[in-house]
Structures are given as C-alpha cells and as structure tokens.
Design goal:
176 residues, alpha/beta, seven-stranded parallel beta sheet, 5 helices, 17% strand
C-alpha cells in the first residue's frame, strides 16, 4: 500500500552528513524530522531529541550511525516496544545495529509495519537469517551507496587512472 509521508515524523539516528541529507529530503516531502546524535550541530532541518523520545514519536526510523559497542543491537525487543505501532525501520548503516530476530518477530506480529535493510549482521547474508522470511522486509545487498551518480564517478575515476597510467603519469596511487 502507498504510504502518505506528509505530516509523518522521521527519526534519524546519526545526524552526520548523510543523516542530515536524508532529513532534508524527508522534510521536502512534508515530514517532521527528529534527530539523535552524540554530537549535535547547528541545523534548521531537525529537532534533536533523546533516543527514547525518538523511538516514541517517530513513524519512520532511519539508522545512519556507525557501529560501536555501546549501540550494538540498539534496535531490539526493548527499543521496539517503545516505538509506535506500525513504525517503519530503515537501516543502510551497519547490520549489527539491529538484533535481527527481534526485528523479524516485530515485523511478523505487525508491531513494525515494514523494514528496509541494506546491511545485515553477517554478509553475505546467511540462509538462516530471520529477516529473509519476515513479513514486509526489503533486503538489498549493501548497495545503498551505489546511486547512478556514484557509479558514474567510479567509472570516470577508473578511466582517468588508466589514461594517466598509459601516459606514464599514474594518479591515485597507493604506496605500501
């Protein structure tokens, strides 16, 4: 089903460059933006809140943070219980941020409406990963970075490197 985003709240965990850009796009779609980050910067895009408040108020939760020992499996049965019924969870950051069995259980029960994950705890994904059989779960193979523009830039750099090498003037070299 089509989901109306205008008027909904997006909570972004990790409000660095990518998180803020995500917030700007979501705000342009009419969403209210909440942010949680250990480092707060000046922004007119989002309202900074504590993590529990973000869980409670968000219709969509997006993970854009690195994985550290203190946030490992931060999306788990306990944190999901604080979220709105029908929340959507998106993770294109690190697979270890989510306890996958807990997310699968929440998807199958309907507590979480849907999830989109570009990363999983073990890559390549194992056949017994519970998200593979969970309802309303979209899994992509760690390619969120691969926009058309990113791939075009990589190809241009590869061609530029090859031409420079052929001309005897290598660029972008790595020295061991």
């Amino acid at each position: 089903p089509l989901i109306e985003l205008a008027g909904k709240t997006m909570g972004i965990i990790g409000f660095g460059r990518i998180g803020e850009t995500t917030g700007k796009i979501a705000a342009a779609l009419g969403m209210q933006i909440l942010a949680y980050d250990t480092i707060k910067k000046e922004t007119d895009v989002a309202e900074y809140v504590e993590l529990d408040e973000l869980f409670q108020r968000s219709d969509v939760i997006v993970l854009h943070c690195p994985l550290f020992e203190n946030n490992k499996e931060m999306i788990n049965r306990e944190s999901i219980s604080k979220m709105k019924d029908g929340v959507i969870i998106i993770n294109d950051s690190r697979g270890g941020l989510i306890r996958e069995q807990d997310l699968a259980d929440a998807l199958n029960s309907g507590k979480v409406f849907g999830a989109a994950v570009d990363v999983v705890s073990t890559e390549p994904i194992r056949g017994d990963n519970p998200l593979l059989t969970a309802k309303n779960c979209l899994i992509t193979p760690h390619i969120a970075w691969a926009s058309k523009e990113s791939r075009e830039r990589l190809m241009s750099i590869a061609v530029e490197n090859a031409q420079a090498y052929i001309n005897g003037q290598p660029i972008h070299t790595v020295h061991a």
